[in-house]
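Quick illustration, no need to memorize.
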Amino acid sequence: MPTGDDMNRYASRTSDTWLANSADNWTGLIDRHCPHRRADMKFGFRETCGLRCCYHGWLFDHTGACVSQPFEETDDVEGRFKDKIRIKAYPVEVKGGLVWAYFGPDPAPLVPNYEPFEWGNGFIQIGFSEIPCNWFQCQENSIDPVHFEWMHSNWAAGKTGDTKSYAPTHLKVDFEEIEHGIVYKRIRADTNEANPLWTVGRNCLRPNSLFTGNYFEWRVPIDDGNTLSVGWFYNPVPQDMRPFK
């Protein structure tokens, strides 16, 4: 899983929120600013049951409830002003080495338990990159098989004038709408209809994901002109190293 600093760099870029980890290892996503004096919760500190604001010490749990107000509780023991205070919080779930957050209305949907998340005998690598374009442009790229021939294979050769090293050309492509997205298939000059590129294809999952067998990519909007691309890779270990944990 990415470190707390990495996760919060992206949480604060894609929404005005802060990912809080308590000392007893729960994870919660809360508003970036304390509702008291709008202090930045980035500077808060972890305690057993939540994240405490650095400004006046108000403590919030992962549901957004205020569970401690040191001065107010001393000044008016019976007042229980903390019961009237909440910070905006969003449901999160840790799965596949990622923290998934939901920003919509209740009830929150279940996070898909994709089969690769349960695979053993291998390593998981997760990469993040910010791309200066709209997320839908990125997703359109995910369902474009022909660009592999030119962008991924021919570009380097073409820049050096080595046209003899060009990749096999695409002869046929097809698209099939399925329950959870679209499958694209292709036949190149070096393959035929028995090849997995045609019999299995690649999956673009609604609304913003690509799955290729051992690799996911999610296109997360930051704003209208920027996207956070999240790549998830499974790398198996050799057979002679299994079982591996």
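The chain has five helices and 16 strands.
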